[in-house]
Amino acid sequence: MEEGRDLGALTKVVHLLVLSGAWGMQMWVTFVSDFLLFRGLPRHTFGLVQSKLFPLYFHISMGCAFINLWILATQHTWAQLTFWEASQLCLLLLCLTLAAINARLLGPRTTAAMWALQTLEKERGLGGEVPGSRQGPDPYGQLRERDPKYSALRQVFFRYHGLSSICNLGCLLSNGLCLAGLALNLSRL
């Protein structure tokens, strides 16, 4: 790096810790805790836990992306960015945008749709079972067939949930690519 553009040692450590911490958190929430909680908790309890966990998770992801983007953006001369530096800035901006969309738009709408679904399910005595524990006909499938309001709410929920999952995977991939790039360029740090 040129004189005057050198990231201080502390800034480099903060950048690496925040980026790796965000990626590790995203890996854990996406691939470990969600599956364990879904398989081990009653359906409505799982929804309650997720409604508390995800807003915090999305805001932490957004904060980490902002910190990393700010560190890199303030430490580089924009006219002389290398391909890697420009790519990393774009990936972090993408992660910040996707995390903000999740935190401010998709997360609250997904949760609102989930609460509406749970209200209808509770009225019919559903929601207290652990997924996969019931034998016989699927009561949720029967409810979808009989109640058009429930079926429509379910579609809204899965639309927002799917978009939120795509945004989450985009953040995970962006941070993973940034970490891979850092690992491949360790000699330049």
Share of helix, binned: over 70%
Counted by DSSP, the helix tally is: 5
Strand residue content: under 5%
Number of strands: 0
Q: Outline, from the CA principal axes?
A: elongated
What is the residue-averaged pLDDT?
A: 91
Features:
single chain, 189 residues, mainly alpha, 5 helices, 80% helix
Description of the molecule:
With 189 residues, the protein is mostly helical. 80% of the residues lie in helices and 0% in strands. It contains 5 helices and no strands. Helix 1 (9-40) runs antiparallel to helix 2, helix 2 packs antiparallel against helix 3 and helix 4 (139-146) crosses helix 5 (148-184). It is elongated. The mean pLDDT is 91.
Task: Note the topology.
Layout: H1 9-40, H2 43-75, H3 83-123, H4 139-146, H5 148-184
Helix pairs in contact: 1-2, 1-5, 2-3, 3-5, 4-5
In short:
This protein is mainly α and 189 residues long. Helices cover 80% and strands 0% of the residues.
